[in-house]
Design a protein that fits this description.
Keywords: Membrane, Transmembrane, Transmembrane helix. The protein is 31% helix and 18% strand. By secondary structure, the chain is of the alpha+beta class. Helix 6 packs parallel to helix 16 and helix 8 runs parallel beside helix 16. The N terminus is likely disordered.
Length: 687
């Protein structure tokens, strides 16, 4: 009789042999069959053993223990993630994968399905654009100010025969009020926060300006009027956010090597190289960071619409005072706050021209300094901050003001958001001239920064380059890849926080995640003494904190709130320039759309019409789906102008949909005539 267990063995090996068919064979034949399989299995095991022994000899014990330790490390990390975050255990960390292409790509871990190009910051294709742009190299580094404001008194420190020096105070009672400028007065005590000092010498017909300087201080009277802090610094550390406008991870390495080395080696800063902007200009990205709102509509890769939270009517035509924002959050929590933007037009209120805040929204603001520098100061005062003669620029004044703020409020938790607009905005290597100054600033504030959360980031990638630069692969990538590095207070660096940050640094991130991190520091981590690592979903927020395990969904262009034209994940694309007539058709369609936009904005009387001079590139995106085909086009026009856009075409109807259009040329003031009606970079002014 055929035994049931023997039948199972035949099914296991799936042998189509007479021996494996039910029959009336004797038990003796069955035993012979058993012996055959036993000998077969033993032979296989002996062969495997010999092969393993040879491999062991070749690779050695070290390789074995390395493999065991690596496996244990990954397993421990997975177990830690499961127990700490409560996420199902499918977030296995996989190693970076590299594919061999003209430009290598790195696969971001966590199975995020996002590959990003890997570039050498000194790649041969970028070198022609790295020209020497240091306009301060011949300035007078021995020059010292003639005047000084110290301990509430301004004095003359360099007397010269025939020179007459006085000062005046510039004050804004409120942000939207007119500036109040005092009469010129002699040296002596002053409670002025922003003081313009000037000197004159007698000329042939009248006195001649020979000196102008902006002094700042935190007046004791202003500090005394403030409430005593409700929170303690030991539990609520300082938070400093420094924004370097237009700086990318690559340009930071080229231009600020000393500062970055100090920040990483002395403060154990973590580099986040995969940050993607979410809007075309500074203002759009500032709304994401300050308010958590998307103000630029678009399409996420894959075709899903990305709706704007606020239309221009909401974020631009109305004051922002009643909107929840990062400054109010810190102020209400008991922090002393300052906003330092070294540009007079201010990020939130320009391009387009918007109302911004009506009233003061922080305890201190640098705005009066920039107003003196660019509007109300005498010519010598303005000249003193141009850098070419006296080596001093507006960012130096901003650094000094930060130091005064930090010294005045050293006994209480502080929040500072400082925006360096002018340092690196215009040229790829412009920021290099500030490396020594910023390094010296970090060194003299070592203890302050070592006990604070310090976030150094940028608003967007580098946008002020030539159109030729953006035709290189590294240039196209840098356009949308802002810089981000973060350090944490030294007392928290051994509690697992750095490990989680480094884990998240290998994933695609946005300004919404930076914002969520700031809110986590302010509102949630203090309750856990900054040991919270479990995933946290903050109500009404789009991002996830870098200090915690992030959710396990894929972080890529299809899942994060990033308009497709800004997402840095590499997409497969096909060059369509050789398809007969296609480039001309799309180029003319783009300019027709621009013309329609100018009509819609009632700007045709002010702005020129464009004509195509060259379609620089036309690519079909590999992730086009269904009946829609998605193209990326770059067009140069007469006048000149250079436009970059994503176009979606319905394959059946031929209908085109145009997403946000970027103007790549350095258009300067050529669009300013549109500001009183509807500012748009699509305009090239007739006058």
């Amino acid at each position: 009789m055929w035994l049931a267990n023997e039948e199972k063995k035949c099914l296991l090996f799936e042998y189509e042999h007479e021996k494996c068919k039910p029959s009336g064979k004797s038990r003796r034949f069955v035993n012979a069959n058993r012996l055959f399989y036993t000998l077969f299995i033993v032979s296989v095991l002996v062969f495997i053993g010999l092969y393993a022994a040879i491999s062991w000899h070749d690779k050695g014990l070290n390789n074995y223990f390395s493999t065991v330790n690596d496996s244990k490390s990954i397993t421990d990390q997975e177990n830690s993630t499961k127990s700490d975050s409560g996420i199902s255990g499918n977030s296995t960390i996989i190693p970076n994968l590299t594919t061999s292409e003209s430009i290598s790509t790195t696969q971001i871990p966590f199975k995020d399905d996002c590959s990003v190009p890997v570039f050498d910051p000194w790649d041969e294709t970028v070198k022609p654009f790295l020209t020497d742009t240091d306009f301060t190299k011949n300035c007078d580094r021995t020059w010292k100010p003639y005047t000084e404001l110290k301990n509430g008194t301004w004095i003359i420190v360099q007397e010269k025969p025939g020179m007459n020096c006085k000062a005046r105070c510039h004050h804004f009672p409120d942000l939207t009020s007119s500036v109040k400028i005092s009469d010129w007065f002699e040296p002596g005590p002053t409670d002025c926060e922003f003081l313009e000092a000037a000197c004159w010498e007698k000329g042939f017909f009248s006195e001649k300006e020979v000196y102008g300087y902006i002094h700042t201080q935190i007046p004791p009277s202003k500090r005394e009027k403030m409430e005593k802090p409700k929170i303690r610094k030991s539990e609520n550390p300082d938070v400093f956010v420094f924004i370097l406008d237009s700086i990318t991870p690559h340009s930071a390495k080229r231009s600020l090597p000393k500062t970055l080395e100090h920040f990483k080696s002395k403060h154990q800063a973590v580099d986040f190289p995969f940050l993607s902007q979410v809007g075309v200009r500074s203002q759009m990205n500032a709304f994401a960071l300050f308010f958590g709102k998307q103000v630029e509509a678009g399409t996420i890769k894959g075709g899903k619409p990305l709706e704007a939270d606020w239309a221009e009517e909401e974020y631009c035509k109305k004051y922002l005072d009643d909107k929840p924002n990062i400054f109010r959050d810190f102020g209400e929590a008991g922090y002393t706050t300052v906003h330092i933007d070294d540009w007079y037009l201010q990020t939130l209120t320009y391009n387009p021209v918007c109302l911004g805040f009506e009233h003061y929204y922080t305890n201190h603001t640098f705005y009066p300094f920039t107003y003196i520098n660019e509007v109300s100061g005498i010519k010598k005062t303005k000249d003193s901050l141009k850098g070419s003669d006296l080596c001093r620029e507006s960012y130096h004044g901003a650094i000094d003001y930060f130091d005064q703020f930090a010294e005045a409020y050293s006994d209480r938790p502080m929040f500072a958001l400082q925006w360096f607009v002018m340092l690196g905005h215009e040229k790829l290597t412009w920021a290099k001239r500030g490396d020594d100054s910023i390094l010296a600033w970090f060194e003299r504030n070592f203890e302050l920064f070592d006990n604070a959360f310090v976030i150094i980031t940028s608003d967007h990638g580098f946008r002020a380059g030539s159109s030729d630069y953006y035709q290189t692969e590294i240039g196209a990538f840098e356009k949308h890849n802002p810089f981000l590095q973060i350090s944490v207070p030294k007392k928290y660096r051994d509690n697992g926080i750095l490990e989680v940050m480094k884990e998240n640094a290998q994933r695609l991130q946005t300004h919404y995640d930076t914002r969520a991190t700031i809110l986590d520091i302010l509102k949630y981590q203090p309750s856990f003494n900054f040991t919270g690592r479990s995933t946290l979903k903050i109500s009404d927020e789009k991002g996830n904190s870098y200090l915690r395990h992030q959710p396990n969904f894929p972080r890529n262009c299809e899942h994060l709130p990033i308009p497709q034209q800004y997402c840095i994940c590499k997409s497969k694309s096909t060059d369509m320039m050789n398809v007969d007539g296609l480039a001309d058709r799309f180029g003319n369609a783009l300019l027709k759309h621009i013309e329609d936009e100018l009509v819609r904005l009632n700007l045709t009387s002010l702005c020129h019409s464009f004509k195509v001079t060259e379609v620089v590139s036309l690519d079909l995106h590999g992730d086009s789906i269904g009946s829609n085909a998605m193209y990326h086009i770059s067009v140069k026009t007469n006048l000149p102008a250079h436009f970059d856009a994503v176009i979606t075409e319905d394959k059946e109807t031929g209908k085109m949909e145009f997403k946000e259009i970027e103007r790549l040329d350095r258009y300067g003031t050529t669009a300013d005539c549109s500001a009183p009606i509807n500012f748009t970079s699509l305009c090239y002014c007739k006058n």
